C-alpha cells in the first residue's frame, strides 16, 4: 500500500508515476492521434519506395532494397519522422536532401560504372519533398476543418504566454484549442482576460483530467525558475503531450529534429523515454531475462552465502525490510542478513550499520562485496524492482527526505533498482541525499535502453574489480 504521508504535488516536485492507460478521449481525438501515427509511417514508406525506384532505374540486385532501408534509417535517426505540431518543408529539406545525396553517393561507390547517381539523387529528393509537402498540407487541412481541436492548457500568464495564446487562436492549422491557463509566477494574476486562469501549477494533474487536456504548453519564460523543473517532470505522469516554449536565455542546443516553432518562438517536445510503452516493455524484458539467468547461474553462490549466514548468525538467513518503490508503494525488500537488529524500530529508522560491532566477518564480507543484495533478484522477477533504477529507501527516511530535499520524491516515477546511475558514481550509504536525488532524476529524465546496459556493465566491473570508476 502507499506509504503514509506521501503525496504527489508540484511543491514537492512530484508526479504520478504512470501515464493514464485508459483511452477515454472522444472519437475525433482518437482520429487525430491515428493520423499523427500514420503520417510518419507513410513518409517512411514513400521515402524508401522513392529511393528503391530511383536506384533500380540504374540497375537491379539487392542495392535498391539496401538503399531504401538506409534512407529510412538515416531519416529516422535525424528526427524526420517525428510527429510535429508545426511541420515545415523548408526546415526538412536541407537534412533530407543531404541524406539522400549521402545514400546515392554510397550507391555510386558500389557501382563505379554508374554515372547517373546525381540524377538518382535528384529524382529521389524530388519525390520525397513532394510527398512531405502533400502530407503536411493534408495535416494542416485536417486540423483546420475538423470539428474538435485538441484541448490545450497553457502554463504561464505573462507576456510571452499571451502571445502564445494569440497564435493558437489565430492558427487553426496548429490544431490546438486553449481550454485555459495556469498561473506559475509570483504575485496577483489578472483573471478577467479572454482566456480563464484555471488554477496554480499544483492543479495541473486535476485540470488535465477535468478538461481532457491533450497538449500541455509550458511557457518557460513565464514560469518561476524554482518550479519549472517540477512542472516539466510532472508531465511524466500525464496522459498528454508537452511542448516547452524555450526562454530567450536558453543557449542549450537542441537537436534540429526535435525543435519546433510557434510563430517564430522556439519550442521542443518534451519526450520522456520511459513514457513509451515499447520502452517500458523493453526495460521489463531486460529485467526478467537477466534476473532469471543470474538466479540460475548464481545458485551455488546463493547456497554458499546462505550457509555462511546460517553458521554465523543462526536461523533467519533472509532479512526483510519495508521499502518504497514505484509511485510511493511499499514492498518488502529481501537481503541476506548481516546482523540482527534489536527491534523493528531500529530496522526501520537506523540509517547505517557500517561500523556496528554486531556485524561479523561474514556480514562484513557480504556487505563489502554487495553479495547481501543477491536475493533482490527475486524482487526484480516479482516486478517490485528493476535491475537499474533509484535505490529504494525505508518509509521513515522517504518522508524525512521528501520534506528536506526538493525533488527527492520524484525518484519514485519509476521502479526502484538494484543498481543505478547514482550508485555507480559512489552515492550509496552515508552520502549526500541531494546529489543522489539529482543523479537519480537525471537518469529518469534521460533514460535509454543502452544507458541501462552501460550501468549494468559498470556495476559488474565494480563488483569484479572493486573499481567504482
Model description:
It is a single chain. This protein is of the alpha/beta class. The chain has 3 domains: 27-145, no CATH class; 150-271, Rossmann fold (3-Layer(aba) Sandwich), CATH 3.40.50.720; 277-465, no CATH class. Helices cover 47% and strands 13% of the residues. The chain has 15 helices and 11 strands. The longest helix has 30 residues, at 27-56. It starts with 26 loop residues before the first helix and ends with a helix.
Summarize the structure.
The chain has 469 residues and is an alpha/beta fold.
Return the string of H and E elements. HHHHEHEEHEHEEEHHEEHHHEHEHH
Mean pLDDT: 81
Strand neighbour order, sheet with most strands? 3-2-1-4-5-7-6
* Fraction of helical residues: 40-55%
Shape assignment: flat
Instruction: Tell me the domain tally.
Output: 3
Structural class by SSE content: alpha/beta
- Strand percent estimate: 5-15%
Amino-to-carboxy terminus distance: 37 Å
| Secondary structure: number of strands | 11
Segments where pLDDT lies below 50 for 5+ residues? Answer: 12-28
Biggest β-sheet strands, sense, barrel = 7 strands, mixed
Number of helices: 15
Radius of gyration: 27 Å
SSE map:
Elements (H helix, E strand, L loop, with lengths): L26 H30 L6 H15 L11 H22 L6 H29 L4 E6 L3 H12 L5 E8 L13 E4 L3 H7 L4 E5 L5 H10 L6 E5 L13 E4 L2 E5 L7 H21 L1 H15 L4 E7 L5 E7 L7 H6 L11 H9 L6 H6 L3 E4 L6 H10 L11 E4 L13 H13 L3 H17 L4
Parallel strand pairs: 1-2, 1-4, 2-3, 4-5, 10-11
Antiparallel strand pairs: 5-7, 6-7, 8-9
Helix pairs in contact: 1-2, 1-4, 2-3, 3-4, 8-9
Amino acid at each position: 500500500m502507499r506509504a503514509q504521508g506521501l503525496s504527489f504535488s508540484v511543491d514537492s516536485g512530484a508526479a504520478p508515476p504512470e501515464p493514464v492507460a485508459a483511452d477515454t478521449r472522444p472519437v475525433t481525438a482518437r482520429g487525430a492521434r491515428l493520423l499523427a501515427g500514420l503520417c510518419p509511417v507513410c513518409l517512411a514508406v514513400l521515402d524508401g519506395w522513392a529511393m528503391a525506384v530511383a536506384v533500380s532505374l540504374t540497375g537491379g540486385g539487392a542495392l535498391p532494397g539496401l538503399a531504401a532501408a538506409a534512407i529510412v534509417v538515416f531519416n529516422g535517426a535525424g528526427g524526420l519522422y517525428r510527429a510535429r505540431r508545426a511541420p515545415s518543408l523548408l526546415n526538412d529539406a536541407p537534412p533530407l536532401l543531404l541524406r539522400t545525396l549521402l545514400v546515392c553517393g554510397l550507391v555510386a561507390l558500389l557501382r563505379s560504372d554508374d554515372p547517373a547517381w546525381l540524377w538518382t539523387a535528384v529524382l529521389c529528393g524530388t519525390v520525397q519533398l513532394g510527398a512531405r509537402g502533400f502530407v503536411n498540407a493534408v495535416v494542416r487541412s485536417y486540423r483546420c476543418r475538423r470539428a474538435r481541436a485538441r484541448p490545450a492548457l497553457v502554463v504561464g500568464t505573462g507576456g510571452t504566454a499571451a502571445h502564445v495564446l494569440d497564435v493558437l487562436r489565430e492558427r487553426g492549422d496548429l490544431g490546438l484549442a486553449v481550454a485555459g491557463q495556469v498561473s506559475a509566477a509570483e504575485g496577483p494574476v489578472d483573471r478577467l482576460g479572454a482566456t480563464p486562469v484555471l488554477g496554480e501549477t499544483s492543479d495541473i494533474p486535476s485540470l488535465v483530467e477535468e478538461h481532457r487536456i491533450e497538449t500541455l504548453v509550458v511557457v518557460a519564460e513565464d514560469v518561476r525558475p524554482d518550479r519549472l523543473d517540477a512542472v516539466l517532470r510532472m508531465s511524466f505522469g500525464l496522459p498528454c503531450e508537452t511542448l516547452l516554449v524555450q526562454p530567450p536565455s536558453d543557449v542549450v542546443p537542441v537537436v534540429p529534429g526535435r525543435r519546433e516553432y510557434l510563430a517564430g518562438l522556439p519550442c521542443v517536445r518534451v519526450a520522456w523515454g520511459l513514457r513509451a510503452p515499447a520502452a517500458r516493455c523493453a526495460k521489463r524484458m531486460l529485467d526478467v531475462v537477466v534476473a532469471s539467468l543470474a538466479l540460475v547461474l548464481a545458485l551455488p553462490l546463493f547456497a554458499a552465502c546462505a550457509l555462511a549466514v546460517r553458521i554465523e548468525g543462526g536461523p533467519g538467513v533472509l532479512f526483510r525490510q519495508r521499502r518504497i518503490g514505484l509511485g510511493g508503494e511499499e514492498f518488502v525488500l529481501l537481503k541476506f542478513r548481516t546482523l540482527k537488529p534489536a527491534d523493528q524500530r531500529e530496522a526501520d529508522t537506523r540509517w547505517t550499520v557500517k561500523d556496528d560491532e554486531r556485524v561479523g566477518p561474514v556480514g562484513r564480507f557480504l556487505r563489502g562485496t554487495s553479495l547481501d543484495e543477491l536475493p533482490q533478484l527475486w524482487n526484480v522477477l516479482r516486478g517490485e524492482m528493476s535491475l537499474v533504477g533509484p535505490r529504494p529507501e525505508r518509509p521513515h527516511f522517504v518522508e524525512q527526505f521528501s520534506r528536506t530535499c526538493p525533488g527527492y520524491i520524484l525518484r519514485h516515477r519509476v521502479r526502484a533498482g538494484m543498481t543505478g546511475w547514482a550508485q555507480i558514481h559512489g552515492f550509496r550509504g552515508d552520502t549526500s541525499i541531494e546529489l543522489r536525488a539529482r543523479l537519480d532524476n537525471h537518469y529518469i529524465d534521460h533514460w535509454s535502453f543502452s544507458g541501462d546496459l552501460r550501468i549494468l556493465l559498470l556495476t559488474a566491473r565494480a563488483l569484479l574489480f572493486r573499481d567504482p570508476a
